[in-house]
Amino acid sequence: MLDDWGLRRGGGRGEAVTALFVGESGTGKTMAAEVVAGALGVDLYVIDLSTVVDKYIGETEKNLERIFVGAEGLNAVLFFDEADALFGKRSEVSDARDRYANVEVAYLLQRIESFDGVAILATNLAANIDDAFRRRLSVLAEFARPDAEQRLALWRRMLAGVPLAADVDLAFCAKAFGLAGGDIRNAAVTAAYLGAAAGTVGMREVIAAVGLEYRKLGRLCLADEFGPYLDLLPR
Ligand SMILES: Nc1ncnc2c1ncn2[C@@H]1O[C@H](COP(=O)(O)OP(=O)(O)OP(=O)(O)O)[C@@H](O)[C@H]1O
Ligand SMILES: [Mg+2]
User: Fold this and answer.
1) In this predicted structure, what is the pLDDT of residue 215?
2) Domain for residue 167, yes or no?
3) Which domain holds residue 208?
4) How far from 118 is each of 16, 32, 101, 152, CA to CA, in Å?
């Protein structure tokens, strides 16, 4: 298409498809990247940016260059997870460290442009991605927190193979607990562990698992969310 319709631009621009996945933790960004790679029938090449970013000047660029050169022969989808480790607002330079971080981001931007493949970046913090970077992206996909209906589908899917007692009210869980997909997955697995010895998972196990998830998230277990099930929480 780029050739036939004369859309190939000059200036060393490659045929890269670059996507940015933005959304809170547990909304499915990493999973979606796996799905994209799976649908294309290629591997997902995950780059942990915290191991790439180096405190010595110039080292980050060298590390990135090695990754791109390696990836170009691989036929894989490049996935930069936790990309906010690298992106700050490039314009707001407050000290020398920031200035070098800007050089690193500029390098990554330029390198992605000449990359001939699919590159996906994921971040929790949309505000940290500056405009110059947005302009260079092919796709910006926002991952929203699931609404009550989607949460019900997530609960049902996560517990589909688990023997549930008759008192389990997943509709209540979906409506009452504002959890992301990843949190629901964690709670479902915890509930299954709690019920494993008895061979069945009841509402007591589900509520206890949600309570543990709330504690991890630093949220209080309050009566207006847990309603009639507040008493099921382990003391
Ligand atoms: N929309 C969804 N549909 C199905 N499962 C989901 C969805 N969202 C999240 N999950 C489940 O939650 C798990 C965690 O999601 P994932 O690791 O992709 O989140 P993330 O957005 O990458 O979070 P983080 O920002 O913390 O890395 C997935 O492995 C999957 O089981
Ligand atoms: Mg992730």
Assistant:
1) 95
2) yes
3) 148-232
4) 6, 14, 24, 33
- Encoded tokens for 189: 């697995």
Least Cα distance to 109 among 61, 143, 44 occurs for 61
Q: How far is the CA of 32 from the centre of ligand 2 (A)?
A: 9
Based on the fold, state whether residues 35 and 93 are members of the same structural domain.
Answer: yes
Give the atom of ligand 1 at the shortest distance from the alpha carbon of 24.
25
**Residue 93 belongs to some domain of the structure:** yes
State how far the Cα of 145 lies from the Cα of 104, in Å rounded to an integer: 31
* CATH at 41: 3.40.50.300
Per-residue confidence band for 10, with pLDDT thresholds at 50, 70 and 90: low
Is residue 93 over pLDDT 60?
Answer: no
Mutational pocket test of ligand 1: of 47, 156, 183, 185, the residue with most ligand atoms within 8 Å of the beta carbon:
185
End-of-domain residue from the set 116, 143, 170? 143
The closest ligand to the CA of 33 turns out to be 1
Q: Measured from the CB, is residue 181 less than 6 Å from ligand 1?
A: yes
Contact 88 CB / ligand 1 (< 6 Å): no
The pLDDT value recorded for residue 72 is 77
- What pLDDT does 91 receive? 45
Tokens describing residue 186: 């964690």
The preferred substitution site among 25, 30, 48 for testing ligand 1, maximizing ligand atoms within 8 Å of CB, is 30
Segment 195-221, tens digit of pLDDT: 999 999 999 999 999 999 999 999 999
